[in-house]
Amino acid sequence: MFELVDAEAALDGRPAPLPQGIAAAAALLAGAAAPVIAGLRTDAAGAVAAVALARRLGAVLDHAESEAVLRDLDAMRIGGWIVTTPAQARAFADLVLIVGDPAPDVLAALALERPPMLDAEQRPRRVLRLAAGETLAVRLGLLRALAKRREVAAPHDLVTLAEALAGARYGVVVWSAAQLSSLAIEMLCGLIEDLSAATRYAGLPLPAPGNAAGVAQALGWETGFPFRIAFRDGMPRHDPVHYEATRMVASGEADAVLWLDALGGGPPPWRKQVRLVALAPPGTRFADPPEVALAVGRPGIDHAGALFHPVAAAVLAALPTAPLPRPTAADLLGRIQAALPAC
Amino acid sequence: MGAVVLRLKAPPPWPLDLAALQPAALAGKSADEIARMTLGRVAVGDVFAVSAGDAAELVLQGGSPLLDCVGAGMQSGTLLVEGAVGALAAAGLRGGRLEVRGDAGDHLGGAAPDSRMGMSGGVVLVRGNAGARAGDRMRRGLLIVEGDAGPEAAGGMIAGTVAVCGAVGAAPGVLMRRGTLLLGTPAVAPPPGFIVGRLAGDGTFLRLLARALHAVSPRAGECVAAVQHRWLGDLAALGKGEILVTGGQAIPQHQRSG
Amino acid sequence: MLTRITGGRVIDPAHGRDGVGDVWFEDGRIVPPPTGRAADASYDAQGAIVLAGGIDIHSHIAGSNLNTARLLLPDLRRDGSFDGAPASFEIGRLYAQMGFSLVVEPAISPTVAMQAQLELAAIPFIDRAILAVVGNEDFLFHLMRADDGANAIADYVARALAGSRALGVKCINPGAAAALKANARAFGLDDVVPRWGFSSRAIIHALQQAVATTGVVHPLHLHCSNLGLPGNVETALATIEAAEGRPLHLAHLQFYAYGTEGPRKFSSAAPRLAEAVNREKNITVDVGQVMFGQTVTVSCDVLRQFNGRHSAHPRTWSIAEDIGNGGGVVPFRYRRTSFANAVQFAAGLELFLLIDDPTRVFFTTDHPNGAPFTTYPDLFALLMDRELRAQWLATLPQEAVAMTTLPAIAREYTWPEIAMMTRTAPARLLGLVDRGHLAPGARADIAVYRPQADRAAMFRHAALVFKDGVLVARDGEVTTPRFGRVLHSSPGFDRAIDTRLAGFFEDTYGVPHRAFDVAAELVGGTEHFEVVPCRS
Ligand SMILES: [Zn+2]
Hints:
The complex is a heterotrimer.
Chain A: E1 2-3, E2 9-11, E3 14-16, H1 18-30, E4 35-41, H2 44-57, E5 60-61, H3 66-79, E6 81-83, H4 86-92, E7 95-99, H5 104-109, E8 126-130, H6 136-147, H7 156-166, E9 170-176, H8 182-195, E10 200-206, H9 212-223, E11 229-232, E12 235-238, H10 245-251, E13 256-261, E14 275-280, E15 285-286, E16 292-295, E17 305-309, E18 314-318, H11 329-339
Parallel strand pairs in A: 4-5, 4-13, 7-8, 7-9, 9-10, 13-14, 14-16
Antiparallel strand pairs in A: 1-15, 2-3, 2-16, 5-11, 11-12, 17-18
Chain B: E1 4-8, E2 16-17, H1 23-26, H2 31-36, E3 38-39, E4 42-43, H3 44-47, E5 48-51, E6 57-61, E7 67-68, E8 78-82, E9 97-100, E10 120-126, E11 140-145, E12 161-164, E13 180-183, E14 195-197, H4 204-216, H5 218-225, E15 227-233, E16 241-246
Parallel strand pairs in B: 1-6, 2-7, 6-8, 8-9, 9-10, 10-11, 11-12, 12-13, 13-16
Antiparallel strand pairs in B: 1-5, 3-4, 14-15, 15-16
Chain C: E1 2-12, E2 17-26, E3 29-31, E4 41-44, E5 49-52, E6 54-56, H1 64-72, H2 74-78, H3 88-97, E7 100-108, H4 113-120, E8 127-133, H5 138-145, H6 149-164, E9 168-172, H7 176-181, H8 200-214, E10 221-223, H9 233-242, E11 248-250, E12 258-259, E13 267-268, H10 270-279, E14 283-286, E15 293-299, H11 302-308, E16 318-320, E17 327-334, H12 339-354, E18 361-362, H13 376-384, H14 386-394, H15 398-401, H16 415-430, E19 446-449, H17 455-460, E20 464-467, E21 470-474, E22 477-478, E23 486-489, H18 496-509, E24 529-532
Parallel strand pairs in C: 1-4, 1-5, 6-7, 7-8, 8-9, 8-23, 9-10, 10-11, 11-14, 14-18, 23-24
Antiparallel strand pairs in C: 1-2, 2-3, 5-19, 12-13, 15-17, 16-17, 19-20, 20-21, 21-22
Helix pairs in contact in C: 5-6, 6-8, 9-10, 10-12, 13-14
The complex binds zinc ion.
Residues 58, 60, 106-107, 251-252, 366, 369 of chain C line the site of zinc ion (ZN).
């Protein structure tokens, strides 16, 4: 067990001055045949700097929570979607269908116990729940068939639910992609589409942790693609199957990892020995000391950063709550890039 | 000279994306040129012994579940794999013919990563089993799995024909819009979202289907002959797809391998 | 460094200049020809055309809607034939190559301005600005009901500009996004927002008045209702009338130039619109030309995008509502073989050619809605060459061409008209005194084009492009990236509006209003921004 204490850097677990840590990180990454920048729990500036470094190294970029983000993006790409923001749902939804068990913080921000402030009639909201699980996609399929008013054999609870859903004026369906299969999300988007023929519905896909949505946005404007990007000859290529960091580490394809965790989400999920540069806030515990560990500031706590705001559903400025003079992820990545040997 | 032959020298070190190995693109290339092509971090020559050829025919000798995207995006020519393949074989295939004498992974004939359409033409024959989502969002063409297929076979299918001679996993034909899914394992009740339909009167369609399948796979052709049910769905989607189901005997497990 | 561009035909309509001569600049500004000093660097422009840098007043180059288009269509981007949503860096590169030096992103809701500013900060070479979208948010309707409505709305608009660091005010299908939430599927100029009872017309009036009060130079930039619908020329004409002589900019007018004549009940009504624009001098317009090919429509007209989602090609879309306008992304392919698309193509050109004042018609494709901005070179060539237009028209469905007057129009844009439309006039429309011209004191934003048989090729790759006096592109190759500025207005307002916004936002939306403000330190600091003065 190794804990990054309040030193600027550590090499194989031993405290070192920051310039030495930067130089070691640069040397390690420059010598790798297939480096991966993973974790990516950072602010917009950190994501932009990670893209620049990956472009320079010919590295792969992936986020710790990319699976969930890509599931939502897939559903959008496959059949289109209609979505809204928590802020709008709080102000206007008269019916909320909660699928699975989304994290309570954003649900609390919806103030479901109150009538929607901007609704004309100010009636209490209807809040309905649908359990996640193996059969969810199939049940949603039946619900869609019922919403389309097709003759289909369906259990009684679904018939009742379909009737309730049809009665909404502005219905909102809430889910967290991490808990659902791709097919279930596709079904939810389809259900919203079907219900929208007669009334108004919108989906509310809740964001994954680690600023995954914000980093996906930043990668979008920087490269045109979300996560799981590889740079070859300076050009980005996107492949959600083959550029998955965890899989690349497990198979041995990746021979060095820069683990970027400025938001304090924890160390890498794998136990595999791979050469590791870790950028993490002090206090992060690793099973084994990374070859290079650099202490990084936390956006929104130690310094200002642009982060996806889960209630506004937008990338907003997060001002520091307790400013500390720690280097930002963008600072450290920029210094590592500057320390790479000239190409 | 004939076909280009790539013999797998050793198991691949990690999952490889073989989409670049298109029969038409390799025809006429020297063995050296082919060996120098890269598959991510490795060169073709690191993994395969190459023998060049001048026809749009590619033979992969030896297989592995780590060989992904075999024949993905293929437009013409023939590709024969004497072994297993990994995920995304024939993904987005548009023409030509792929035969796998072994098992295939997930998304056989499905949509390539990042794409919204599965196979849109051509013929794919898998002698063994297939993983999840075979024929996912397929738009045209013929996909035959002589063994079993995993869950969500022919999911989101738009048109074309998928035949699974063995068993299928959960939710076959889910979100099917149009197209035909043939199941060789007897079943009595339609999956959720499907309703019982009538088999067309004189059986002309089935005879034509049987002939088309028989030419590729006699076993699949025989399945058609045994069809006894026609189910229509998926009512969650457009609902104009059909699942044809045999009423005959299940194929014993031991006959299903390569 | 003193630099001289020698011997080109220098065209600067702002100062009546059109003739062979030199342009001198030093320290990023145009200077008078110096006496007794030799140039440190000299560029030969003999036989070439020398203009100020191009200014695009309406092009969707940033923001979460455009970014959704990127994430929605990775497959189209991969095969390289799709310029609808390039990455930020590419936007700067492609514009610079064409000789543009300023581009305005016209549709950023204040609630998503932070991301838009981050995206602008990633676009190299050119200057950028955003327009802040208002007109569909409940807070505005709430103020419209208040006793001190007019003043409060002006404060609110000024506060929106300050919070989002925007140059001007945009209003997109006012009331319609709010009505869609209440399940309206159509919304015209005199339809009213459910619950609040305000018509689109009333919202436009309130915002025109607010913009005038703030002193922001750019007039209210309006995206009218009924975009894209047959017969919507009546909406555009009624909107022009509703302006009652007050300044108003109508965006992408081509999308409102439709009549209902002919066998398909779809025809070009561009001549009627052009006539109205020629008559009403308070009106400026940009065209929003349609060009053929794959693109993606990106719009805060969420009602229009909701209704149009099923015509998506490929069949996918994102409709994203928010507390104001929200937005929709619907990919679309304009086809030469399509009757409707051919009429749209011709109607746009008719507007360009029939509006006789090049200071009031602006050059846009509403990128990427009518076409990607990478089609600009072809569009310039079409405007300047009647023969080329005839060749294009010959490839279109003739029954569609018959629904337009384009074949009969002989006008060809001249170089001074091109310079006026894309340099002089846009700078004036945006209130920029040191851009869009080549007199001493102006920024040395300069584009040099070398005439050749293929005009489109000439416009695609300007021979020389200078930004703030630095060479940024030469014959289609850009130099080391450098970054221009982001322009914004900074009108004053009564801080009391903050208290009202704070209360409304916390309670209604559960988010503090100030959380939406752009943090300058996260997008390059104050150096990165340039304040465009308001009228006093
Ligand atoms: Zn626009």
